[in-house]
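Hi support team,

I submitted a single chain yesterday and got back a structure, but I'm not sure I'm reading the token output correctly. Could someone confirm the output below corresponds to the sequence I sent? I've pasted both exactly as they appear in my results page.

Thanks,
R.
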Amino acid sequence: MPNIFLRLFNDGAANARGKVVGIYLVLIATNAAAWAWAFVAFHNYPALLGTGFLAYSFGLRHAVDADHIAAIDNVTRKLMQEGQRPAAVGFFFSLGHSTVVVLASIAVAATAAAFKDRLETFHAVGGIIGTSISAAFLLLIAVINGFVLFNVYKSFQRVKNGGCYADEDLDLLLSARGGIFARLFRPLFRMIERSWHMFPLGFLFGLGFDTATEVGLLGISAAEASAGLPIWSILVFPALFTAGMTLIDTTDSILMLGAYGWAFVKPVRKLYYNMTITFVSVIVAMIVGGIETLGLIGDKFGLTGVLWDAVGSLNDNFGTLGYLIIGIFVVSWLVSIGIYRLKGYDQLEVVASGS
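Hi R., thanks for writing in. Yes, this is the structure output for that exact sequence:
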């Protein structure tokens, strides 16, 4: 059994379709198990099934938060540029993120009387930690991808003008030949080398408890515990939250994998698509990281005005911003394909380096 899971969640290029099917079978089974648990636990409390559905919808909605999408997209592209096919980036990020929610829900449920009136304090302290980590990671990955974008653009221009192409062109920053910036940023790139490395990153992102979904879930735990519901029944709520969030985060990751997979079929397609989508990714990561940073500054220093009110509104509607980012990526991909075909780039004769 352990060998099956190791093969299922490895990042090798072999049998990518089989791994995607296997991961979805795991997700379907875990979602079904979470709901079966809910029906068994609440068969005498039918009204609580509605509360369970609310917790599940919290997870579904939280997965489209802007920081989730930006982090999963950037890491998926990075690993693919290194020759991997990471189908489980979103899966492990979501598991790490939801681990915090589960642990906190247990703590809240076990000490409901003490925690019920302290959720706001818990939210405030955790918000500083989680938002700081999220913003710092996204801004850092935006800077790194900015250098990737510069090198990919140079490579694409060289190929378009009849120059040579080598697979290493997209990995200049990972090579000693990339110059001072390559040597400077190589350790940062190596921070995440496998899909499962997203688990601790997701855990750190989850420390904030700065979203309405997570705070709401803790509130459910406190309310139901104070009403006398057993702790094992209360754990149904974070389980449903985890099931919903993991389903959407994993789907996001696999959709990105499919989009990049199309691009990686041909060298010129790989260069062109990476150039356009990396540009979008840099902009998105900068915007999301910047909004989080400004929101944290404005909130902690009590800043007011048109700018700070707008930043606060954006931070309060991160889910809506997430949907917008999904739309931007979809439109960018479609426009990228359209321009690529219109310009006839697929017909370019690519001269392989060393031939």
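A quick pointer for reading it: Residues 119-160 form the longest helix (42 residues). Let us know if anything else looks off.

Best,
Support desk
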